[in-house]
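For the sake of clarity, the format in which proteins appear in this thesis is described at this point. Each number in the token line that follows is a code from a learned vocabulary of backbone shapes. One such record is shown here in full, so that the layout can be seen directly:
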Amino acid sequence: MKISTKGRYALRIMIDLAQHPGEDAVSLRDIAERQEVSAKYLELIVSVLNKAGFVNSTRGKSGGYRLSRKPEEYTVGSILKLTEGSLSPVACLENRRCTCSRATRCETLPLWLRLDQLIDDYLESVTLRDLVDQTIASEVEEH
């Protein structure tokens, strides 16, 4: 499993929005500047987040984006699954079921199933709030 830039940047967008909860809608340009990522690329990613209802968009001069729910209601797993599709460590588990013709005699299948479950359990246990709080904690330690 390798998380693409799309998945990593989706997490960064969501964290950025979670770090600015009291503000009006946050412009994509501001997010792009803070995250040092092309606004054009972020547009593609935020479109996916918006269509899935993870963020709300506001049009107009003071338009932008905000989270549609509280940060603790998003898991890292849900964000990555949305943007990455499958997080399975091997292709034969991409649909959450092994459809391989060798499944009944595959010696490694139990290993991959367990790894897939561990990855899923971990990513579903970490919330956006956890990431924001960790960022805040590390910033405090640096100063």
The chain has a mean pLDDT of 89. Helices lie at 5-18, 28-35, 39-51, 76-84, 109-125, 128-142. The first helix runs from residue 5 to 18.
